């Protein structure tokens, strides 16, 4: 039976980043993935690496550290992750959104990060296809884009240089514990492994791994959908998002002057043009269980909203659509933590719509936790202990 210092379960962007960082620290580490690398949510996403779609506080702090790490990784890795430091723009349709955006930007600046209020004229100079009747927006210089698939494969290729072992098509079906509840090994459908440290990096499937060690992890799948255009000239130079998107992410009851269809499916515009010249537009936030099918009404609503902000899209063909599920944690912060009641069990999951952006810092923080080092910044707010005294069985019931 193979034996490892640490086994990472899940070959998505969080698991590959964590495995890479651990291998780099000299650990004998393996990654176990039930399908292929980047076959879960990491392959059903766009690639915004943003500080600016986070909540002020630890969320913004994680975003900042992660974007800084992306800049380093993009230079160090032999594998091209298509990192582009292109800036980021929020656009506001109404005065109410503009007021909320200004308030948000002031909070981000108070934390020491740059975020500038810009007028409609500057917005249209930066994005020539943007609708001309918007109120204004926010601009952040440091944010960027990556190719999420390539990020996962970049971590794997770089990790292998430090001895990382990769087992794809190995579904974890159980975890062995000793009499003191300490991790002893991992059971898969293709054989067992010995280890006394396991990282659960299974995104929306993290609750199922949690149950294998007797804990309820409060993560639920939150659906999104994206439309991909044919290749064209660059439609959007940067990632552009309507500010209503941020409001909808954190304030479920925020109302916008939108059509019934857009309202019904909680659709907000985000757009990016990829390295290969296809434009991706989204998106929505819905609780639909584990269903990732494309839904016709949502496609219509996303197209309607995208054309509202980028009228040129009316004349551009959509070549495919897809859905994905974000790992939504009940208090809207990821869990990056040891689990005290199960010695040797760690969780790195629950990044909702930010897993691509936060992968580098999550992997680094997790490797520091496992090594018993001081983390780059205080991450008590990301700990498993924050759920003590909360009825998690009730909260995670929807994940079953
Ligand atoms: C439409 C959409 C748009 C998004 N846009 C962005 C964006 O622009 N920027 C951003 O930062 N984030 C974005 N996100 C969010 C981001 O994609 C996720 O946060 C991220 O992919 C989660 O990564 P993960 O590694 O935790 O999960 P996953 O990528 O799902 O990886 C988990 C892995 O665990 C494996 N697994 C599960 N169970 C087992 C088992 N029993 N045994 C072995 N393996 C197992 C799965 O097969 C899977 O590969 C978006 C998400 C969606 C849906």
Summary, kept brief:
With 400 residues, the chain is α/β, with parallel strands linked by helices.
Q: What are the defining features of this structure?
A:
single chain; 400 residues; alpha/beta; FAD/NAD(P)-binding domain; D-Amino Acid Oxidase, Chain A, domain 2; 6-stranded mixed sheet; globular
CATH topology of the largest domain: FAD/NAD(P)-binding domain
CATH C-level class of the largest domain: Alpha Beta
What number of domains?
A: 2
Q: What is the annotated CATH architecture of the largest domain?
A: 3-Layer(bba) Sandwich
Largest sheet: 8 strands, mixed
Residue fraction in strands? 25-35%
Helix share bin: 25-40%
Span between termini? 32 Å
> Mean pLDDT score, rounded?
94
Number of helices: 11
Poorly predicted spans: none
| SS-derived structural category | alpha/beta
Write the CATH homologous superfamily of the largest domain. FAD/NAD(P)-binding domain
Shape: globular
| Order of adjacent strands in the largest pleated sheet | 6-7-5-15-16-17-14-18
Radius of gyration: 21 Å
Overview of this structure, please?
- This protein is α/β, with parallel strands linked by helices and 400 residues long.
- The chain folds into 2 domains: 2-44 and 149-218 and 331-399, FAD/NAD(P)-binding domain, CATH 3.50.50; 88-141 and 220-329, D-Amino Acid Oxidase, subunit A, domain 2 (D-Amino Acid Oxidase, Chain A, domain 2, 2-Layer Sandwich), CATH 3.30.9.
- The protein is 30% helix and 25% strand.
- The chain contains 11 helices and 20 strands.
- Strands 6-7-5-15-16-17-14-18 form an 8-stranded mixed beta sheet. The protein has a 6-stranded mixed beta sheet with strand order 9-3-2-13-20-19, with helices on both faces. A 4-stranded mixed beta sheet has the order 1-12-11-10, with no helix packed on it.
- α1 runs parallel beside α5 (148-161) and α2 packs across α10 (355-370).
- The longest helix is centred in the N-terminal third of the chain and has 19 residues, at 58-76.
- It is globular, with a radius of gyration of 21 Å.
- The two termini are 32 Å apart.
- The model has no long low-confidence stretch (mean pLDDT 94).
- Bound molecules: flavin-adenine dinucleotide.
- The site of flavin-adenine dinucleotide (FAD) has 42 residues, from α1, β14, β17, β18 and α10.
């Amino acid at each position: 039976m193979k034996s490892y210092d640490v086994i990472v379960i899940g070959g998505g962007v969080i698991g590959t980043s964590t495995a890479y960082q651990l291998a780099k620290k000299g650990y004998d580490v393996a990654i176990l993935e039930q399908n292929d690398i980047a076959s879960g949510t990491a392959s059903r996403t766009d690639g915004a690496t943003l500080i600016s779609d986070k909540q002020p506080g630890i969320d913004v702090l994680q975003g900042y550290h992660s974007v800084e790490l992306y800049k380093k990784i993009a230079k160090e890795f032999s594998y091209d992750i298509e990192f582009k430091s292109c800036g980021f723009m929020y656009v506001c349709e109404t005065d109410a959104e503009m007021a909320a955006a200004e308030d948000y930007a002031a909070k981000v600046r108070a934390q020491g990060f740059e975020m500038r209020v810009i007028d409609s004229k500057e917005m249209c100079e930066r994005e020539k296809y943007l609708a001309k009747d918007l109120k204004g927006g926010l601009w952040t210089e440091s944010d960027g884009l990556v190719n999420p698939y390539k990020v996962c494969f970049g971590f794997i290729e770089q990790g292998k240089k430090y001895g990382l072992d990769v087992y794809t098509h190995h579904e974890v079906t159980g975890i062995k514990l000793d009499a003191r509840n300490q991790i002893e090994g991992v059971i898969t459908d293709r054989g067992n492994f010995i280890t006394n440290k396991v990282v659960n990096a299974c995104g929306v499937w993290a609750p199922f791994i949690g149950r294998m060690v007797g804990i309820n992890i409060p993560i639920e799948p939150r659906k999104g959908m994206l439309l991909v255009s044919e290749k064209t000239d660059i439609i959007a130079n940067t990632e552009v998002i309507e500010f209503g998107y941020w409001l909808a992410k954190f304030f479920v009851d925020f109302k916008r002057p939108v059509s019934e269809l857009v309202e019904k499916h909680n659709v907000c515009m985000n757009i990016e043009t990829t390295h290969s010249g296809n434009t991706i537009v989204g998106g929505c936030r819905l609780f639909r269980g584990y269903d990732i099918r494309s839904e016709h009404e949502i496609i219509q609503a996303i197209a309607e909203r995208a054309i509202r902000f980028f009228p040129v899209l009316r004349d551009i063909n959509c070549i495919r659509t897809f859905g994905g599920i974000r790992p939504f944690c009940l208090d809207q912060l990821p869990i990056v933590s040891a689990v005290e009641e199960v010695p040797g069990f760690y969780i790195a999951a629950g990044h909702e719509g930010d897993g691509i952006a936060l992968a580098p810092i999550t992997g680094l923080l997790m490797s520091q936790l496992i090594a018993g080092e001081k983390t780059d910044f205080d991450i008590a707010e990301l700990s498993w202990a924050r759920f003590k005294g909360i009825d998690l069985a009730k909260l995670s019931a929807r994940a079953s």
